[in-house]
Specification:
HIT family, subunit A; five-stranded antiparallel beta sheet; alpha+beta; 185 residues
Length: 185
């Protein structure tokens, strides 16, 4: 009986290692930089376009005077959202006092709402300032609010390099938007 040739990554099928693969082709748009603005101009910026859309279609959770809350299209965890100023500004020190306060208030409210809806155990909160710091869209400041649960970093992301999200973004938006309006400031 002839021995089967060993397949390699160059063969386009990966190295056989007894692991099953979960394919996430929808993330290719993110990896290839779809919807990322080329420069610092608001023209073409997704964070400038989002507020022009219907809340459901745009995955907007809530709108304030200076800031809005929106689900991340490529979430790290269910309920991963962002607080984003309407104004096209890249650097945190360039926010006005009013924008800074509302950004902080939206971050606090997001934590309260996500805890209420999904009993998050903790959060990663932050913003990446500049491309070298990891900002995917560096030209428009945005603060991430990522819910965390004990054991949420299981074998899937560690070994399989895949996140399993148990809820569609539209369903997550509906839950969070409803709770946002029910939660007093």
């Amino acid at each position: 009986m002839a021995e089967e040739p060993e397949l390699t990554a160059q063969d386009g099928v990966g190295v056989p290692d007894a692991l099953q693969r979960l394919w996430t082709p929808h993330r290719l748009a993110y990896v290839q930089g779809a919807d990322k603005p080329d420069g610092d101009e608001p023209n073409g910026c997704p964070f400038c376009r989002i507020p022009e859309l219907d809340d459901v279609d745009a995955l907007i959770i809530a709108r304030g005077k200076c800031v809005y809350a929106v689900l991340n299209l490529y979430p790290y965890n269910p309920g991963h959202l962002m607080a984003v100023p309407y104004r096209h500004v890249a650097d945190y020190p360039d926010l006005t006092a009013e924008e800074t306060v509302e950004l902080a208030e939206f971050t606090q409210r997001a934590m309260t709402v996500v805890r209420r809806v999904s009993a998050a155990h903790g959060f990663n909160i932050g913003m990446n300032q500049g491309v070298v710091a990891g900002a995917g869209i560096a030209a428009h400041l945005h603060q991430h609010v990522v819910p965390r649960w004990g054991g949420d970093a299981n074998f899937m992301p560690v070994i399989g390099h895949t996140k399993v999200l148990p809820q569609l973004l539209g369903q997550t938006r509906e839950l969070l938007a409803g709770a946002w309006h029910e939660t007093a400031q």
